[in-house]
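Fold this complex.
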Amino acid sequence: MDTALKPRSTGRLMIVGFLSPTVLLLLFMVAYPIFSLVHYSFYNFSALNPDKGMDWAGLSNYEYLLSDSGIWKRFVFTGKFVFLCVTMQMILGIFVGYRLQKTFRGRDLLFTALMLPMMLSPVVAGFLWRYMLNSEWGVVNFLVSLFGFAKVDWLGQAGPALWAAAVVDTWMWTPFIILLATAAFRGIPETIYEAAEVDGASAAYVFFRITLPMSAPVLFIALILRLIDSFKQYDLFVALTGGGPGSSTETVSFAVAKTAFSYFYTGEASALAVILLCIIMGLAMILVRHLSNMGARH
Amino acid sequence: MTATRNQAYAHLSRWILLVLLGLYTIYNLGPILWLMISSLKSRADLFAMPPKLVFEPDFSGYQSVFGVGAARDSASSVGVFDSLMTSVFVSTVGTTVAVFLGTLAGYVCSRFEFRGKGDFMFFVLSTRMLPPVAVLVFYHMMFARLGLADTWLGLVLIAVFVNVGLATWIMKGFFDGVPKEVEQIAIVNGYSRIYAFLRLVLPMVKGGIAATAGFCFIFAWNEFAFASILTTTRAKTLPVKISTASGATGIEWTQICAAGVVLIIPVLVFFYLIRRHLLMGMTFGVLGRR
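Structure:
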């Protein structure tokens, strides 16, 4: 009896011992803060003078946020940014990934080198592009003028700044789509292509009717992860535009940070953070459901 | 007739695709090259129009980052080297702890079935999705109350938190690659589970631990949102420091370019270490499990 019990009990000890530090850390750093955040979002209070106490505010923080045009402006900007950069990344990434399926000399080296931008600090990326996009002496405007166009004040106007931010995010994250797309393309059985060749299918037909549909499950993961990451984008805007000109390039994350750490409207910031969390959670749920569907099929 | 036209069409499209790939490569790698070139320019050359490709190298940016030479005493380079040291310390310690915890948790998740395991794995995955500013609203107060604001210890805690979930998922993937028979045989032969884990399984995932550490280091090293809000003067990391490097004379571009290169170099080194596991690391182990 003793010997029968022993492995099971050490197993249980191992589970508890090995898991509890991580569980406690995450409870303390994720669950507790989110719980508090929801709690704060129903109060009027400021982190600047916490001793003044918290006034019950009910839903007024949410009511205020939903009726405030400034907040809507930030949601609209974030939406435009997400749409622009994710579309560009997906198209570019799928195209380059497809092209990299063909073997040529130095392909693996090129592939590895192309992965680099996504591993860089978003702050470095932001400042690097801010430097290159400077309207007076930036290299981008130099290239623009080489082709005979007028210089553009990229980061000084709301419209171009949105495009600039999308181009920088696309620069950083297209490699991610390339990475996932090539993995998806590699997973398609060679025999299907051979069959298509026998049938005399054109390259375009093969791409749109075989390659894309068959890699859709993995590309969908890429899409959702990019939607989540670009929706909560914060670092890049701090470095690239600082939210300007004016407040025209402030994302929802940026607005949370500004409300909480510049104005110290902690209750209001909490409510906005809860809304942001709900959106992200919604996207995460779609991803998790998709993943379990994928797992069930294989 | 149609055959040759098809051939010409295929030929043309091949060339167009190749040119597009070339253009993308320039878009992708050009900026990094441009940063490296610019980091060696003097202030005057940095703003030259048209941009200079031939110039006399100037190391004042690097001098100010490393706190040596003439630039050491300039007002803009005060504390930059300290922030580099903060980054090195915080990333190293944070990575070590995160990999340690992730290895333990990953092993358990790979080997045991227990109640709530799926919930735990999802909970861990959620740290990948979490918008930093959301929890920061709370951390900002919590860190002040616990005396962790603007300290190395606080930043280490953040570096561990940011990475522990990733480490757990990646390590679970590597442990899944080790056959369960290893432990079964060890136990049949009278060794303890702990012995089997420490002496038999761990050595088999050495490469995985190194790759996990590589990922964690890069993410800790690049971390910005938390560090920028939770530090003010004493414990700024290098990314935070350069984001505030705009002084009275405007943005210190020589310093930023040099700091940018200094921030990229460790990433290059660790990137080489993890290049085979990129898919797994970047998707939190969702894809590319081996």
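The first strand of chain B starts at residue 246 and ends at 247.
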